[in-house]
Design brief:
- It contains 12 helices and 16 strands.
- It has helices at residues 13-22, 44-54, 72-75, 81-90, 107-110, 124-133, 153-160, 199-206, 213-216, 248-258, 289-303, 321-332; strands at 4-7, 27-29, 36-40, 63-65, 95-100, 115-119, 137-138, 166-169, 180-183, 190-193, 210-211, 241-245, 264-267, 280-282, 311-313, 337-339.
- The strands form 2 sheets. The chain has an 11-stranded mixed sheet, with helices on both faces.
- It is an alpha/beta fold and 344 residues long.
- A hairpin with a 6-residue loop joins strand 2 (27-29) and strand 3 (36-40).
- Helices cover 31% and strands 17% of the residues.
- It binds adenosine monophosphate and magnesium ion (MG).
- Residues 140-141, 149 line the site of magnesium ion.
Amino acid sequence: MKTLVLSANEPNTAQIASDILKNGGLVAIPTETVYGLAANGLDEMAVAEIFAVKGRPQDNPLILHLWGAEQIDQFCHHIPQTAYDLAARFWPGPLTMVLPAKDCVPKRTTGGLSTVAVRCPDHALTREIIRLAGVPLAAPSANLSGKPSTTTAQHVLDDHDGKIPLIVDGGNCRVGVESTIVDLTEERPRLLRPGGISPEALMEVLGDLVVDKAVTAQIDKDAVVKAPGMKYRHYAPAEPVVIVSGSREKAAAYIHRHYVPGDRVLCFEEELPLYAGCDPLSYGQEANVDTLSAGLFAALRELDDPSVHQVYARCPVGGGVAYAVQNRLKKAAAFHIVDAEVEE
Ligand code: AMP
Ligand code: MG
């Protein structure tokens, strides 16, 4: 199969993409978070193809992408008022809500669950594609399962050239990490995955939020969890990643003591001069955390190279979108963190 790459700016792109989707085909779509590998979320065969192309475990559910909050009722029931409040505040945007699923949503899409995850992406062309297709799009991140997510059309091409008919090129993803996921099916709202909408912003609407343990710790692969998918090895380059926490100077001293040729350092732009001779790669500016979220996956993909032995990574501190960056980096590092303030 020849994989076509069409710019989001071409006048016919939305029509061509939606025609493929209506016919059960796959299209890689740009969103503000990461590129998605989309199919008609109500078509079991099309959804099965997503799992096959990505190599995704069958119990890892997909997010249904809607073109507006008015579609929630078509696919969900027992919808609490908080869902409408969150949609009014954050949609279109990087927030996914887990709600009880109506029977029209195939179990293949929900990974066998009775709940479904829904979101409305903040990307004009992609919403136009959804509207023209007339169906919700199931769309996980477009990377091969286990690889860092895709934030450019080239990343998608690197993983799927010849395996899907169309990639819509919308440039670099603005947020760069996947959506925040909040589960609204229990008594208390539960954060399943941090993302572009911060826990602080959610709290302003919800007044209450439980943070699921999948966010803060390594989950056993056989565990039964609220956030399937979070238990799988994720976001990681091929080689081990170690997060080095602590002050700039202490971290640099630690890394210089342990560095051997073949290692790489993933750091903030401001730190590049500290790592001369250690093959450093910056993923953004510490002073501007949005650049870190936008740059993280491209950097992790660059480091996903068999010639690299080990990666020492610097991680931002604090809340907001830094919380999502911490989560992705910790998962990439399998929660392996050394504190340069105390460790030799
Ligand atoms: P991805 O689209 O690759 O970022 O992955 C989507 C993630 O959303 C999954 O890995 C799950 O963690 C989460 N998810 C999707 N549907 C549900 C659901 N019904 N209940 C809980 N988590 C879900
Ligand atoms: Mg993913």
